[in-house]
Design goal:
By secondary structure, this protein is an alpha/beta fold. It has two domains: 8-135, 3-Layer(aba) Sandwich (Rossmann fold), CATH 3.40.50.1390; 165-224. It is built from nine helices and five strands; from the N terminus they run E-H-H-E-H-E-H-H-E-E-H-H-H-H. It is elongated and about 80 Å long. It starts with 7 loop residues before the first strand and ends with a helix.
């Protein structure tokens, strides 16, 4: 890996609401970073600002340009005065830390003492990553629970069925007669039957998918009866 540039990118952000208050926060953010630059002996600090953007996601031109420079090796450190200037999503922040580690640049968040250049700062970063993973697991559990509730209420889970019902019935009937998935697929291809997406080529896996969908339909019908 080529040596990283000595350039430090200092990221500042102010939302639309803060911007309406005469740019409240930009001067304070810059002051905090300037003090940190002195203590860290950063000689080359470039300031990147996103004005009028929230931190709900990373879809901002300023941070996108900063990440481009870091990825290309034009800069070696990204510093922010407070975590909420960079992101309000712990999952987004964890992803940034993973990106920094993979690409070889350093991340510094001054208000949380996160500094991947130092052992203690790296430890704090790992703690934040652990909390992000915990949040990700909670989201997964909530999503699973919500799907199970829908299933219990009779909702059909999975991809909506767009195949001609007559074709589905034919596949189910032929399978019930003991025909293999390959035999059914070959017969459909010979007869020029279209798939659910309008294709003309059936595979055993495609036939199996139709059979699974038919099972889901029967289960949903049974629950709603």
């Amino acid at each position: 890996m080529k040596p990283r540039a000595a350039k430090v990118i200092a990221y500042l952000r102010v939302s639309t609401e803060e911007q309406s208050l005469s740019g409240l926060g930009l001067a304070d953010q810059r002051l905090v970073i300037e003090r940190a630059a002195e203590s860290h002996h950063w000689d080359h600090v470039a300031y990147v600002i996103d004005e009028g953007f929230s931190a709900k996601n990373l879809a901002r031109p300023g941070i996108a340009e900063a990440l481009r420079q870091l990825a290309c090796g034009e800069a070696g450190v990204l510093v922010v005065s407070k975590l909420d200037r960079l992101s309000r999503s712990l999952l987004d922040f964890a992803q940034l830390m993973e990106t920094a580690k993979r690409q070889g640049w350093e991340l510094v968040v001054l208000d949380l003492a996160i500094d991947t250049c130092t052992p203690s700062g790296a430890l704090m970063a790992n703690v934040m990553a652990s909390f992000a993973e915990y949040e990700r697991q909670l989201i997964g559990q909530r999503t699973s629970a919500a799907l199970q509730v829908k299933k219990a209420q009779g909702a059909r889970l999975g991809r909506p069925c767009t195949l001609d019902p007559a074709v589905s019935q034919r596949i189910v009937a032929e399978r019930a007669e003991g025909r293999s998935l390959t035999t059914i697929a070959n017969a459909l291809n010979s007869d020029g039957v279209s798939t659910a997406r309008g294709g003309r080529c059936w595979f055993p896996s495609t036939v199996a998918g139709v059979l699974r969908s038919a099972v889901l339909d029967r289960e949903a019908l049974g629950r709603s009866a």
